[in-house]
Amino acid sequence: MKHLFCIFNANDPTPTAYAIRSSSYQRVTVFVLGKENFGKRQHRSLYRLEKWLAGSAKSSEDWPRGLWSDSWDWEKPEAEVELFEIESLSENVFEAHPNSTIIVDLKSGTKKMSIEMMEYANRRFENPQFIMSNIGSCIALSHGLVVPTPHLSLNEMVWLSSGFVIDVDYTPDFDSSVDAIEHLDYDLQRRSGQHRYSFKQSYLERMGKLFSGEYETDRYIYHDYLEEFTAYAMKQKNDYVEVYGGVRFINPKRLKNCLGRAEWVILKNKYPDQFTTEYRTEIEAFFESGTTEKEDLIAYVRKKIHTMEIDSLALTIDGWLIGVECKYGTYRGIDVDRLHAICSRLSPRFYPLIVNTNQTNKHESGVHQIPFPMLLDPLDSILVFPEILPTNLEVAKSMLQEYPDDQQEVELEDALDIIHQLLLIIKENPISWPEFYQLLQSQGIKTTGLMKFIKQHFSEKLNFSLKRQKNQTGINWIVWN
Amino acid sequence: MDTVYSFAGHSIVPTLALIHSNIADRYVLMFTEELKENKLMFERYLKHKKWEENEPNIVLQTIGSVGKFSETFQQIKEIIDRNQKFALFLQNGAKQLLMAMILQNPDAPRIFLQEPLTLQIYSSLVLQHEESIVFSPEEVINARGVSLEDSLLENITLKFDSRGRIEFTMRVGDVNESDVSTIVQLIGKFGRNGAVYRLVYNFATRRIWNTIPGNVVSIKEELQ
């Protein structure tokens, strides 16, 4: 029997999931360390792992019959998985059947934890094997080898890293992708005083597009095909594991919100589409009762329950989730910000990319923007990672993530440690007074009388003085002596 | 102890703490391919370094890329001489390389650097010995190819902070583009997390203020 031991990665359960998937284990023990100190973020991570182990992110049976799509689920791991809550690592926490082959994954946890895992497992078992699971490969540390392992699906990756499931319009087929790339034909055209790349009409016709000769209708062919082409270009490259076009993100834990949003979008629309006009009564009845026998109505509603949507989503072999928006012609800063906001909201694993028709590429507002022919270049040149310096607020926030943030109404007297730590952090990474007290409020700490409290307990000890500014902005509310 | 084996890291302070510790006669520092420029700089530093007492034997080794695990695993195995009394310094290096090194040598003492500048030696998981390390902050800049006389350090003082991190403090009246550029160059040389950067100033326009990197501690005060 193959028995894997690993540590639950509390800030993102993805590494834990790919450790479990790294081989065909019969048993897996996941150590959940220090759960009593978990904040909301860590609890949410644990929930996502539990759902992943169950093979579905479906939160309850309240979903109207037929609305949940089976394609949103995944195959659950074959192993019998135990989540074992412990305060700290020790020799005694390693329990296994005699004659088990013991494998210990050291990917998650700090260096210190990994050394402890290694030490205790060595004491407890004879010849345990040590591995470090990565996306698509696994390092056999004991043997100095790297072996390929199965990838998690894109849907699993999105769920594990962000808590959303994806509903997609299409998967580009490989043959069409080869065709689209092999026969790609485009030129530079002058539009609105600027040169832009444009697909040639003959190429689009070859790809099955029908032109009417009317500019107003034909121009949309170019717009729509840019999305298709982007999906094709990514599909035919070995750097990508999975590619989808027309991707909607659904939060399965918020069924009520999902339905509320769909109801609003469908029924309150000033310009209802043909389906809504035709079936308004049935749609209203569905939102009232939550049931319907009409499959096409369910399918129609399913396309409206999402929180966010993007044009394409691709998973690279290195585990990046490339979120793509395609822009034919001009677009505005707000479009760039929107994509950045979507990807930031999902997870740090997401890489926002705009594919456009401009002549040159640029990296602006955290989003790389490339002309569509560049999609054929090596992936390394497409993904750009400029050094991003964290803001002082991010530095302070990252400190607070180590504290539980799900407590409510903590008195200032009980938060001395947190405040002390935060003051030391902001000494080196100054933030404004509103940012400071909002950070404490986010931890459930009562901030009434905070200024006075800080003055009383810390100003002498840490050697600073406080000055309340009229407009409350800026970082000079605290002066270090 | 005869030899301590260590990986070089992006931060130079742990390496300097190790070679100034006198805990061994010989230090073998392994630089992955990604850090070959740091190796060249460190070679130059060692060439000009004047030791107050016994000069330790410091060997710099280049090993493969951190991404080519199998190759690097084999190289580490060949570099470590098991006929000597040796220890492993575990403060620097990618986790997979460190774990592989421990697995190859499970009984070797393990050395960590704790803040502020304290070396701790463990046997398995038990702390056996610890000692504070003293060296000047000037060593840190020298090891990165910068001297105190360098124009880059004009208006800048340096010291170790309470956590043993190198701290650069720039004092200016009105902040201008050149000041910000100097700080950006320092960050480029010593790393975003490799040092603490402080700017003490009297006045900065909003435009200049917006160009100051977010990790710089900016302190507005009335200068004399």
Explain the overall architecture.
The complex is a heterodimer of chains A (481) and B (224). Chain A has 481 residues and is an alpha/beta fold. Chain A has three domains: 2-151, Rossmann fold (3-Layer(aba) Sandwich); 167-251 and 307-382, Trna Endonuclease, Chain: A, domain 1 (3-Layer(aba) Sandwich), CATH 3.40.1350; 392-480, no CATH class. Chain A has 16 helices and 18 strands. In chain A, α2 (40-54) runs antiparallel to α4 (154-162), α5 (174-182) crosses α7 and α13 runs antiparallel to α14. In chain B, α4 links the parallel β4 and β5 (110-114). Chain B starts with a strand and ends with a strand. The model of chain B has no long low-confidence stretch (mean pLDDT 90). Chain B is built from seven helices and eleven strands. Chain B has 224 residues and is of the alpha/beta class. The radius of gyration of chain B is 20 Å and the shape is elongated. In chain B, the strands form two sheets. In chain B, strands 3-2-1-4-5-6-7 form a seven-stranded mixed β-sheet, with helices on both faces. Chain B has a four-stranded mixed β-sheet with strand order 8-9-10-11. In chain B, 30% of the residues lie in helices and 27% in strands. Chain B has helices at 13-19, 36-48, 69-79, 95-104, 137-143, 177-190, 206-211, and strands spanning 3-7, 26-31, 57-62, 86-89, 110-114, 118-123, 126-132, 156-160, 166-171, 196-201, 216-220. The chains are: A alpha/beta (481), B alpha/beta (224). Chains A and B meet through α3 and α13 of A and α3, α4 and β11 of B.
